[in-house]
Structures are given as C-alpha cells and as structure tokens.
Amino acid sequence: MSDEIKDDEWTFRDLSLGFHLRNDDILRYDPEALLRTGREWNIVAALNILGRSGNFSQLDRLTPVLAATDDAQIWDAGINMLGFSGSWPQIVRWYDLFMQRPDAPGVKYYMAFLLGASCDRRAINVLLNLYSRSSDSEEARNHVIRELSSLLEARNNSIFLARNADPPFADLVSLIRPAVEAQASKESNSIFEGAILDIPSLAEKMRNELFQEEVARGRLLRGRLVFEASTGIDCTPMFNEIGNLNRLAAIAILDEFLDTDPGTRFLPGRRYFFGHPIPL
Predict the structure, then answer these.
(1) Which helix (H) or strand (E) holds 181?
(2) Distance CA 278, CA 27 (A)
(3) Cβ-based burial of 5 (10 A; exposed 0-12, middle 13-18, buried ≥19)
(4) 186: confidence class by pLDDT, cuts 50, 70, 90
C-alpha cells in the first residue's frame, strides 16, 4: 500500500458507479492514511478497501460525510457502500438518522435506494412508509416504486409500471400485496427480484438476459451492483465510459464466475460484500 494521497478529487469518483476504479488499483492506497485526511472521497475509498477484507467497523464514518455535502456523486458512492455492505439493523439506524431531515434535497430519493440495496424483505414496509411521507415529491415516490419492484418482481411488471401513475398509498399497498404474500413463507429475509437472494442464480439470470434482443438496462445495472458488491468481481467492463452496454464483456465476466462452482462460496439467502458474509 502507498501513503501517497492525491489531491485530485476525481481519483475515486468511479465509486459513484460501482466498487472498482476504471483506471487505477484502489488497493495501492492505505485506508488508514485515507481516513486521516478527513476528505470525503478518501473516506469513501477507505471504507471500500476495508470492506474488501470484511472489515465493516468504520461504516458510520460515512453518515456525517453525506450529511455535510450536496455532491450527488458522493451520495451515490456513499449510499452504495452503506446499502450493499451494511447489516439490516445498521441500515434501519441510518435511515432513521437521515429521515430526521426528510426535506433536505435528495434525502428521500437516496433513502429509497438505501432500502432497496439492502435486498431485505423487511425494507418493504419501510419503503411503503417512505412513500406515504413523500406526497410532496413525485421523484421520491417514483423511486420508491422502482425499489419495491427490484425487491418483488423478476421483471419490470405491474409494480414497476405503476411508477408512472403516482398511485395513492392504499392502491400501492393493494398492488404489491400478492408479491408480498408470496415472500411471507420464505426462510430468509434476503430477497431480490421476487426470489431468495442467490448470487449464482442472479449471475445466470443476468447472462440469459444479455442474450435477449432488448435488455432492461435499469434491471441490469442493479443486478450488476448486487453481483459486484457480493463477489468483488470488477464489472466495470460491462459498460463503457459513456455508459453503453458491452454485451460480450458482460457475458465473459458472468461465464468466468459461473465456471468456478460459485454455489460452494455463495449460499442462498445470504448477503456478501466481496465474498465476506455481511453480519445479520
């Protein structure tokens, strides 16, 4: 690891899109040196590095960073780390903390993402509560519905399509009830796209999707985040620098993973960050 800390604020901005840097190796940086600087991007990067070794003890360092900035990319990167590596009790605590200022710009939108990234069915009721508290924000309500869809639907079906109608709260509850009831008997709280969270199965589903003529880009982007966070595999090549899908690169990444007998390392119903089980 290097003690060199660059002043260039762009060094770690790729972390707003995922968990790897496109043109640099984040592991060459010393996380403790990064934390000592107190700079927002360095803190995000340090927690990424620590999380790769299964150390989630410093995640609370992110909440004051987010509370003090209106930089959307910092929020993207920070909520990625909190949502995809935090335990459910931590996520609830962070949600309650940020919702003390629910009218701050972007808070409701990012809280919806935080809850969806948890891949936890207990997030459904909290998302519904957030929806009821967001009558003043069509963007936040739209995003809540997207997150409900990512938890409860295998495809962009009736829940996802309801986002365009801004349904009353009672109508949304009725709409999602069959999908919620279908989850009630599941043995794990960890769910994604209407099924128990299972990383090898997700990889297979994503691979199959890539052979379709029309790819649901939003679904693929979320699947990519879940897959990358869980496995630590660099999925940056799946998209080029302007965000266009590279199907061949994406298929190659997923094929290589599926060829490694991943079912022995990633158990159904468990959340992982870079292969390390996230505490329950």
Answers:
(1) helix 169-183
(2) 21
(3) middle
(4) confident
Q: CA 225 to CA 83: how far, in whole Å? A: 11
Asked which of 8-12, 105-109, 189-193 is least confident by mean pLDDT, the reply is 8-12
Number of C-beta neighbours around residue 177 at 10 A: 10
Sign of CA dihedral 217, 218, 223, 225: positive
Euclidean distance between CA atoms 150 and 156, whole angstroms = 8
The count of other CB atoms within 10 Å of the CB of residue 76 is 17
Angle, in degrees to the nearest 10, between helices 217-231 and 72-85? 60
Residue 93 CA to residue 83 CA, distance in Å, equals 12
Per-residue pLDDT tens digits for 35-82? 999 999 999 999 999 999 999 999 999 999 999 999 999 999 999 999
AA letter at 244? N
Q: Comparing C-alpha atoms, which of 190, 279, 182 is closest to residue 226?
A: 190
d(CA 30, CA 148): 38
Q: What distance in Å separates the CA atoms of residue 235 and residue 148, rounded to the nearest whole number?
A: 24
- Measured CA to CA, the distance from residue 147 to residue 119 in angstroms comes to 10
Q: What is the DSSP string of 28-68?
A: GB-HHHHHHH--HHHHHHHHHHHHHTT--TTGGGHHHHHHT
CA gap 107, 182 in Å, rounded: 30
Entry pTM: 0.95
Residue 71 to residues 9, 66, 189, 205: CA-CA distances in angstroms? 12, 8, 32, 34
